[in-house]
Amino acid sequence: MRIAIIGGGPGGLTLARTLHVLGLESTVYERDPSRDARGQGGMLDLHTDTGQRALRVAGLEDQFLVHARREGQDFRLLDETGTLLLRVDTPDDAPLARPEIDRSDLRDLLLDSLPDGTVQWGKALTTAGDELLFHDGTAAGYDVLVGADGARSRVRPLLTDAEPVPVGVEHVELGIPDVDRTHPHLAAVLGRGNYWALGPGQGLGAQVNGSGRVRVYLSFYEGHDVPPLTKDALARAFDGWGPDAQDLIRACDDEIVRRTITMLPPGLTWTPNPRVTLIGDAAHLCPPSGEGANQAMLDASELAQALAAQPGRPDEAIRAYEASMYPRSTAVTEESLRIRDMLRAGAQETLRFFAR
What we know:
Keywords: FAD, Flavoprotein, Monooxygenase, Oxidoreductase. The protein is α/β, with parallel strands linked by helices.
């Protein structure tokens, strides 16, 4: 059975690894020209019953625990005046319920667990049909095709004409390199994990990565325009906030990225295709809520187990996987929308959420 996986993110690689452990081989087609072609972004918090569960099935739990950052579970919540409303400092013996791991470490862990040749680099998919056509002019056949290729999936049109739509929030990402050395006073402000300062319609989040780089995320909701993408203009958008907000923005380097947050329709389903299915954002893209990679990895794990249980009947395996995935992903999408509204309302509403 030729299993083709489009996309080498956490979902696609978890699927390939779990299939391998269960005795089925696959090929991952990844558009990046090599594993080191680009940075992998910030950190992920992997949850016990989703991302960690998938790694356990894939036989990678011990390796994950080597890289997991218990201190990444620390959390500080402030309002726009800079008043600290909630502080969570993780004890050294606290359970690893939602530890952080650098995306690059997770990717390396998964890649190193796969047989040589499983990942085909430089394979940007241009057309998916009875066979796969790639940008480099090559083609490949398949018996089972899995779209793990994210929000702009090229596999999704085989199943549905649904497209992502904006959800009314823009994110701007910046970064502070080696914060302990370059800005030790800001390192003390941020702590070891996640830092949120929230006001009505705007927010500033920061996350300390294992490399020492701080990822700074600015959020602008409907009614709050995104300023020009310069540090001075972005800092001015937080005039009147607590003193640390503008200091954090001005301490960043010049790498600035703007992202329009989009989502697929909640409760999206499609007519079953006996050879094609989707996992992760390709299937159920939703606003950021800490669940995206976790759900993608759980999708991958459940699909791999279904295929291994019925190796001669991929159509039945796909049908069983989708029947389980639909209600689970719908619930997560609905919760992510509630979290979006909570963050848009500001710090007090978020504080009530954590109190509940």
